[in-house]
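Slide 14.
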Amino acid sequence: MDYSHLKDKRVAVLLSGGVDSGVVTHLLCEQGLRPDLFYIRIGMEGEGLSCTAEEDIELSQATARKYGLSLEVVDLQQEYWDNVVAYTMDRVKRGLTPNPDVMCNKLIKFGAFDQKVGHLYDYIATGHYGTIVEDGKGAPSPEFSTGRWLGTAVDPVKDQTDFLAQIDHVQLSKLLLPLGRLMKEEVRRIAEQAKLPSATRKDSQGICFLGKIDYNEFVRRFLGEKPGAIVDIATGRKLGMHKGYWFHTIGQRKGLGLSGGPWFVVRKDVRHNVVYVSQGYDTLLQYGREFSLAGFHFIATDPWKDLEEVPVAFKIRHTDTFADGVMRLLPDGTRRIVSSRDIQGIAPGQFGVVYDKTRTICVGSGEIGV
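Slide 15: predicted structure.
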């Protein structure tokens, strides 16, 4: 992607200390830009939990020195706790499956950061894997021929548009995604050739900005434990005990401690603290074909206006595969997805992310209803 025409614009890069944002900095500098670099601090210091922030900042500082750029550490810890952590614990306590990464992007990286610093810049570049489809270039169909849209990455395994599916059109208008047309191995190769400080660092796998913190330990820190029964939904037989329904999500297989499996979580009774499971890979209780999307959010605008039904592709979790179906607009304004095949583990509270039928444009998302 050519960004040389942005030399006279103010560009900020969000660094994480990882290889992806390091390569973003390298690519922009190669094209003659002099971006300002920012590291967003949202660590767990003082909370008795581990954090990789110190190493992240050291690698970010080394990247800044390599290219003679400024680096500022922006402290958004309080905003993170007040918004993302509060959202996560609220959903978990209600028996839902939250997505902190989606809300971190919406409320912190492109929310609180913009309020503090980002509003001073024309563009904000990140290491997310996605593309920008603008003014019809690469548009899959006429409804996307004008305006700016969030497009999928060429690397289907690394595509992160589902994590960006709650940003709005203002945030999208300033977003630069330099890695979207590169495969991950190309990014690694660029980092090695450029001798970036983060070239050999492994990709992070945890919750947004929580480093090596175990998710269950994170939940236990706030909600504690509440022992309850694990029950076979087909027979009503008690199979074992769990430590709290909030440690389990619909579709979960691992971590149940049951023999004679595989066993999958298929339902949770929040009121009575019961986790229901079903046995085997092919039980129909694991699958569904329809679900509602509460408060559906269009990233740019509604490309389908008031069409009552439109063919779409969608995801209900972070994966490199799409499902196909239709999205229906019900009389009360609710959006509903009807899949063309059975979908395993539809978890209320997760985000259902909707794409056009060619899987090119990430249109928006909504919370999967109960």
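Speaker note: The mean pLDDT is 91.
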